[in-house]
């Protein structure tokens, strides 16, 4: 009974998210190429964000998580979402692009074998990760020190905001908890709290089921989005397999408790939607991407930086290469001028301090970052091309970027390649600034964030391969037919 | 028919020719590393004995059964060997998951007070190339094994040999380093080495070299046959490399799954928490929560030294919930000591010296507050502020 309740509690937000994505694109978008896998994948993260908002709302009004209230509100939201999603007449008229996953032409015998082999490989990865999730008690360091610690504290002790250690030491109240990272976002902790509350007890294994589902949803979204791009079952499954077979992804699915896999959903899939939306000119998909990357800011601090990166992606895309270059030149000239006139730090109303002062970079919403050069080429070389964390992802991406320049196709392909390259450029720039130019470089030297930050982009990095090689992977039989 | 098979033929030629070239290159490279080849040291020709702990030693295997103060040391006694000449360690150890640690050690002749420590990986038979350890050099005057466990049990070194590097050994060592089981560790969420921690050449870099060479071969084929360069072949080559690396990962995942299944399947939640290195701390925390601490949540300060990894303290903090605990490497200031709050000091980290008398004699503000020892055993000391 407990497990049934848990299953319902974990699947309900997912289903709600699915209905919202399906319904809203039917209502808002004129033509969006979509499918159920895509909607399920993106819907998972929309649904869990809604769950997070409802829990926060519940905590704000009552100070404790009330299972009945949150599940009731979720059920209440199901009604309009279902109406929106299953309003078939409207959807049919408004969304001619919705395609089914059936192919017009059957795959050849060889392709069928390849599809079977890929499904088997994906299933193996999935099964090993599920087995570890269900067998091994909470394992990773940051999980039992930070993310799951908060969830467990609230499950047993009731919800209360964590206080700084200095305050905890002065305060005799034993109902308050503390942590060195007391100001961290609490998204993944609240999801674990929800899981334990649904189950009615704290489980060292089952609390990680949502992160496992998050990884599964990313796989579904990648498959669905690849199909929506016009790929047939085989290459779309291949993309899905590439994602699941990245060892670091597999590890985070097996050893749950970190928030990075969630951010891979919000930021990573957010960028998938942005690249796809920009490449196909679909406003709804762009909005979906922007929303997901925005929600990522509530999952981990770096999510805010990735959201700014997403805004930069859209700005540069809409401005085009010439105007973007001009803007960068003007910005550089202004920065140079400000430096000459010693105006490197300004305080803006509401926003706060912005600029550079005494070796520190001040950014709105993020705070102070110490500027410091770290030569981390070697850690990058080791982690991306020698060790076993990434399989051949970085080599494949490097070759794909080269391929972009060698195999330029028609205008549409150039636009798609432009979107993929712009994303990669911003990704590389962000990593360069963080690890080469700030004190965060020490985490690159220790082989920690150097891998975990790119992990948050993994879905988009894998999807970039789709965008770059799409024109070579699409065969006439790839095109889907209209649904219903 | 010929046209249909042309991409497959090109792929096979490029892949196999490139694999042959890479293998030849590796063989030359490995051959260059081989020096003199003295006789190997094995359990048969080298008498080992227990310096600490106890068990049985035969010419076939070493059985470790008893630990004294958590340690068992097996030593070769005095010998003379040149590290550069005997650099391949072959070993097979059983029941490693119950051991906290097992290392192969060596004492350099020029600096007898220092030990070279080589941690041994759990699982099946391993082959280690000791030249990857910078300290493995010069003349060695003693070798042996150091095992650490808080509980007696059956642990077995089933095979051991220290051999010279031969071409066959070099290849075995390289392949063994690629295939070595990499169990879940705290660093796993950050990175995976993909096999042994130290490798002469990492498999992904060899695969990258292979497919880049295969691209060149394929490029030459198309150039000489005046055919169009097709993307399918390079893509298939990269995919082949990906599948090889994934095969290695899946083998590791399978081994890990077997390990996890044998460690946790069919156990209750509490039993699972007591597996591996957490056993002692979990038993202790369970005892404290059941028998010593009050049912209502209390504040607990976990004191540790700043050099400690704090693993056990942080684990204790997590499992002490709903008691509100905090790990600190500094003693609280006088105004930070609250009445009836607890101070917990774990003894698992031996580097932290706990001066019980000094702590108990502290009287914050010089007033009436005292600190009393509430509970003490081999794992920790629980004190309460009065």
Quick recap:
The complex is a heterodimer of chains A (484) and B (386). With 484 residues, chain A is mainly alpha-helical.
Question: Overview of this structure, please?
Answer:
The complex is a heterodimer of chains A (484) and B (386). Chain A is 70% helix and 5% strand. By secondary structure, chain A is mainly alpha-helical. Chain A has a domain at 1-96. In chain A, strands 2-3-4-5 form a 4-stranded antiparallel beta sheet, with no helix packed on it. In chain A, strands 1-6 form a two-stranded antiparallel sheet. In chain B, the strands form 3 sheets. In chain B, strands 1, 3, 4, 7, 10 and 12 form a 6-stranded antiparallel beta sheet that branches. In chain B, strand 8 (101-108) and strand 9 form a beta hairpin. Chain B is globular, with a radius of gyration of 28 Å. Chain B has 386 residues and is α+β, with helices and mostly antiparallel strands. In chain B, 35% of the residues lie in helices and 24% in strands. Chains A and B meet through helix 5, helix 6, helix 7, helix 11 and helix 15 of A and helix 3, helix 4, helix 5, helix 7 and strand 14 of B.
User: How many helices of chain A?
Assistant: 20
Rg for CA atoms of chain B? 28 Å
Average predicted local confidence, pLDDT of chain B: 85
State which percent range the strand residues of chain A make up.
5-15%
The percent range for helix content of chain A is 55-70%
Helix- and strand-based class of chain A? mainly alpha
Number of strands of chain A: 6
Strand order in space, largest sheet of chain A: 2-3-4-5
Q: How many separate structural domains of chain B? A: 3
| Largest pleated sheet of chain A | 4 strands, antiparallel
Mean pLDDT of chain A: 88
The largest contact between protein chains, plus residue counts on each side, is: A-B, 70 and 67 residues
Q: What structural class do the secondary elements of chain B suggest?
A: alpha+beta
Termini separation of chain B: 91 Å
Outline of chain B, from the CA principal axes? globular
For the sheet with most strands of chain B, the description reads: 6 strands, antiparallel
Spell out the helices and strands of chain A N to C: HHHHEHHHHHHHHHHEEEEHHHHHHE
In whole angstroms, how far apart are the ends of chain A?
37 Å
